[in-house]
Amino acid sequence: MTLLTILLLASVTFGTRYLFLEDRLPVRLGPNLRLLLSYSGPSVLTAILAPILLVRDDQLFLSLSNPYLWGAAAAILAAYKSGSVYWTIGAGMLAFIAFGQLI
C-alpha cells in the first residue's frame, strides 16, 4: 500500500510538472495564476521552518536560549544585507553553532 501511494504521488508530481514545463504542449498559465503560484515557495518554506524554529517538546519555545531563533535571525540579517545565498547560509549556521555552544 505504501509503495502504491508513493508511485501515485510521484506520477501526479511528474504529470503536473511535465504539463507546465514542456513547451510543445498547449497548456499555458494566465498572469493571475502565475502571480498566485509565486507565493507557494515562501508559503511552503514557512510551513516547514516555523515548527522547527518555534516548537520544542510540543510547546512554544520563544526563549533567548533558543539557538534556532538566533540562527534564523542571523540568516535573515545576512540575506537582507548581502543578498547572497552563501552568506545567508554561512551566517545562519555560524550563529546557530555559536549560540548552541554558549547555551
Account of the 3D structure:
The model has no long low-confidence stretch (mean pLDDT 89). It contains five helices and two strands. A hairpin with a 2-residue loop joins strand 1 and strand 2 (59-60). The protein folds into two domains: 1-38, no CATH class; 47-103, no CATH class. The protein is mainly alpha-helical. The protein has a two-stranded antiparallel sheet with strand order 1-2.
Give the helices and strands, then pairings.
Layout: H1 2-21, H2 31-37, H3 40-54, E1 55-56, E2 59-60, H4 67-82, H5 85-102
Antiparallel strand pairs: 1-2
Helix pairs in contact: 4-5
How would you summarize what this structure contains?
The protein is mainly alpha-helical.
Order of helices and strands: HHHEEHH
Order of neighbouring strands in the sheet with most strands: 1-2
- Proportion in helices: over 70%
**Quaternary structure annotation:** single chain
Shape: extended
Query: Structural class, please?
Result: mainly alpha
Distance between the termini: 45 Å
Q: How many β strands by DSSP?
A: 2
Tally of structural domains: 2
Report mean pLDDT, rounded to a whole number.
89
Return residue spans where pLDDT drops below 50 for at least 5 consecutive residues.
none
The biggest sheet, with number of strands, parallel, antiparallel or mixed sense and barrel status, is: 2 strands, antiparallel
**Approximately what portion of the residues adopt beta-strand conformation?**
under 5%
The tally of helices reads: 5
Q: Rg from C-alpha positions? A: 19 Å
